[in-house]
Amino acid sequence: MRGADSYNEALFSTIRLEEFVPANHPLRPIRTWLNDALTRMDARFSAMYETDIKGGRPSIAPEKLMRAMLLQVLYSIRSERLLVEQISYNLLFRWFVGLAIEDTVWNHSVFSKNRDRLITFDAVTELFNATVEMAATEGLLSGEHFSVDGTLIQAWASHKSVRRKDGSDDDRPPDNWHGEKRSNATHASVTDPESKLYRKSRIAPAQLSYLGHILTDNRHGLVVNVRASIADGYAEREVAATMLADVSRPGVRVTVGADKNYDTRGFVNTCREMKVTPHVARNTRRAGGSAIDGRTTRHRGYAMSQRRRKCIEQCFGWGKTIGPMRQVMVRGLAKVDQLLTLTMAAYNLTRLRTLGALRPALVG
């Protein structure tokens, strides 16, 4: 017998959000671990709001906002406006964020002010560091063998926003720049002044961009350090040296794999001064020859580092296809750095789940 096409909503419901989420859903172990990590950050969250005017309206819990920001990365949600819309009717998203069915979802504009708070107090950086500590506790890091690389991050600004710094072309139509030579020394974007014109190669067009840098551990390809920087020809090697200084330890010889862009005498000498063995791909076409010779390449570890360093491309690929790093929808170096750090924290969580480090969380 054919059933009737009818819809009668009950006045009351006793079903909890928890019951809508399958027991084996991949978000379950991530949420359990994330709740523990956010609980340990309670003192930092309290400091974020202690300067607010007493007696004012309570703000949205930063824990909920950080869960929502992480959810946006994991599910490739392009904007906060769309994220809020999804949370309003997606029961899985409500459960992950920590909102009951009856709770009203906040306005998308609240992300702007709270994002600045999170930057000031390095909350996202602490969350990323917690993923690294989790990996170290589970024995998933070698602590000795690393890979480093950088990638181009397209800024949220167009060529039409590029103007002369001295203001001499303020009256010019925004799209009438053909035939004019532009450089970072004389021009800047009025939309995002910190972004720079940068090209990936000699044949690629110059784009307003930032650079993203990550340092991965070779054992399982987990990200252990992450930075964003202004786009220029020296940033990759300078930031790489800074990140290596953070992981180098007295009396421990570490190695770092890298591509040909890092084959400069300055970077190689800096690594050796820090007791870091540079397993850098040789660039024999560079003027003066390669800075890496047979004393390094003859060892079996050099070939292993060269194979493992290619895994770092998976991090960038994930960050640009699943995550929002192909073209960021924020402006300014601080916000780009925060978004890159959050994206790599999300990547680490997916890797930890795959590697089974978060599996015990399913028991709870």
TrEMBL record:
InterPro entries: Transpos_IS5, Transposase_11, Transposase_InsH_N. Residues 164-183 have a biased composition (Basic and acidic residues). Involved in the transposition of the insertion sequence IS5. This is IS5 family transposase. Signal peptide: none annotated. Keywords: DNA recombination, DNA-binding, Transposition. It comes from the Bacteria. The lineage of its organism: Bacteria, Pseudomonadati, Pseudomonadota, Betaproteobacteria, Neisseriales. Residues 16-117 form the Transposase InsH N-terminal domain. Residues 210-349 form the Transposase IS4-like domain. NCBIfam families: transpos_IS5_4. Belongs to the transposase 11 family. Residues 163-196 are annotated as: Disordered. It holds the Pfam family DUF772.
